[in-house]
Amino acid sequence: GELNAKSGLELGSGTGVVGLSAASLGGDVLITDLEENLELMKHNIKKNEAHLIGKADASVLKWGDKEKIQVFVSYEDRDSEIKIQLQKDFMELMRRYFNVKEIPLEEQDPEFRSPDIHILKFQLKSDS
């Protein structure tokens, strides 16, 4: 399929039609919505299994649940002054609202990790 080896996350899925379409094209997709839509999403995945090349799964994701908000950012070290300044400005803005933790190199995928590529985990501060 056109989306083989691609992963997707559908937010506010409702029926899950967008995520199911992506899975029918080979993508591995997690469709998410509020608790009241979970059974409908699971039902629609089951009914469409025969048409899926990739995988589809459903999960509850409640927007505004501050304890669960995490943002992952990856970047590669750059030498240009403008890139260094942009990174500094970005981090300053993010630290206003998020606690920041760098994922250690030894916890990253051995095939894809590199000392010049950083993965940061941002967790929303409880007072935000």
Q: What does this protein structure show overall?
A:
The chain has 128 residues and is α/β, with parallel strands linked by helices. The chain is built from three helices and six strands, in the order βαβαββαββ. It has helices at 17-24, 38-47, 81-97, and strands spanning 7-10, 28-33, 56-60, 70-76, 98-102, 117-124. Helix 2 links the parallel strand 2 (28-33) and strand 3. The radius of gyration is 18 Å and the shape is globular. The relative contact order is 0.15.
Give the gist of this structure.
The chain is of the alpha/beta class and 128 residues long. The chain has helices at 17-24, 38-47, 81-97; strands spanning 7-10, 28-33, 56-60, 70-76, 98-102, 117-124.
Q: What brief labels describe this structure?
A:
three-stranded parallel β-sheet, alpha/beta, 27% helix, 3 helices, 6 strands, 27% strand, 128 residues, single chain
Write the layout of secondary structure elements.
Layout: E1 7-10, H1 17-24, E2 28-33, H2 38-47, E3 56-60, E4 70-76, H3 81-97, E5 98-102, E6 117-124
Parallel strand pairs: 1-2, 2-3
Antiparallel strand pairs: 4-6, 5-6
